[in-house]
Specification:
homotrimer, globular, 155 residues, 60s Ribosomal Protein L30, Chain: A, two-stranded antiparallel sheet, five-stranded mixed sheet, 30% helix, alpha+beta
Chain lengths: 155, 155, 155
């Protein structure tokens, strides 16, 4: 089953990968590593989740934001590599959650992204993770994911 | 002298490496690099330092939190590599300190971790570093360290 | 035209690379990657921009701070590699902006750094980027840039 089919089974479709929000490239390659620019829950050029978990947003909103952001990560990888064959594995996920002071369950929000990677990518999903809390994020996004992946050499 | 002996001379013992706090792996390998998940000052599954430096915590508390966190980084490396022989060097330490507004001495707090690495690992400790200030961190931890290390190929 | 000449055309000169602010090295090498410690807008050992964009600092100040910080990144690369010949490309720029709540245009501030890299380095400048907002940064700096670069093997 392809990554796209697995996502469809979960009710997700891969979006068009978002354009960078400034003077940089969406994805940068260095040897066997792929560095993906910070992704936000953009769908069709529009930020679907803004604001803080615990205030304008619930934990469930945060989880959905994390899933939409993870889909953008996958879309960037797919565009850059022309598919998922050359993806070796997701190496690291850095997850940033906009939330109120006193909300400490960033891991629950980010698990929604990690679990989406696991279901879509299987063994290629295994990653180290770091979680951070912010009183706000650029563009007032609810979630940012910064991902590093390992890739196979081009043939 | 082994890393463990050097730590013992400083009054430290390597803890059992903490379990991930969510759906990810503690350590992820990519070629010659090791990406260690964000570590916090957990001892025996319990967070020893929570709260902000300058409020519930002193700078000295922050330094001790940084040391305990550094021990968890070393414990993760040891479990993943089966020892420190294959560790080439600590490449980068990203240090996050929970503190009040107006506390600017994150470098002093993080030096406690960098110096522990230096004493335990000698020449393998040399690393670039970045320091950040947060009004809170996940699980209300006082310190998070995110570490990248270079490793030697397995024999 | 050399990097230094291109910078001179823009009215910039490469500074002496700042000393680390703690017990770490300014730059750490791992295989084909160069990890540069977090840089701030230091000139001659003095922090030129402190405080928050939207409060003590304007967006224009933030952009200038980002440019001065980018110059320090280039100065660290030059000192470490002995020039820019062995620089393959800037792989990733992580940009942190100290600002008030409600200021969401971190990308505009960081574009000043990305565009300086583009003008000085040409094709070697292409990078992925992530942007973050902070209520304060260590030493009260207005901007921090954390950069990873790819390098060519030494001859």
């Amino acid at each position: 089953m392809t990554v796209e089919q697995k996502l469809a089974d979960l009710g997700f479709t891969l979006p068009a990968p978002p354009q960078p929000l400034g003077s940089y490239t969406a994805v940068s390659e260095a040897g066997n590593l792929l560095f993906i620019s910070g992704q936000v829950p953009l769908v069709n050029g529009k930020l679907v989740y803004t604001g803080r978990v615990g205030e304008q947003r619930t934990t469930e909103d945060g989880k959905h934001a994390a899933q939409l952001t993870a889909l953008n990560v996958l879309a960037q990888i797919k565009r850059h590599l022309g598919g998922f064959e050359r993806l070796h594995h997701i190496v690291r996920v850095e997850g940033h959650v906009s939330c109120i002071d006193g909300f400490y369950d960033q891991p629950a929000v980010l698990d929604a992204a990690s679990e989406l990677f696991a279901k879509a990518l299987g063994e290629k999903a295994g990653h180290a993770r770091s979680a951070f809390s912010h009183s706000q994020l650029p563009a007032n996004a609810t979630v940012i994911l910064v991902v590093i992946a390992q890739i196979e050499p081009a043939r």
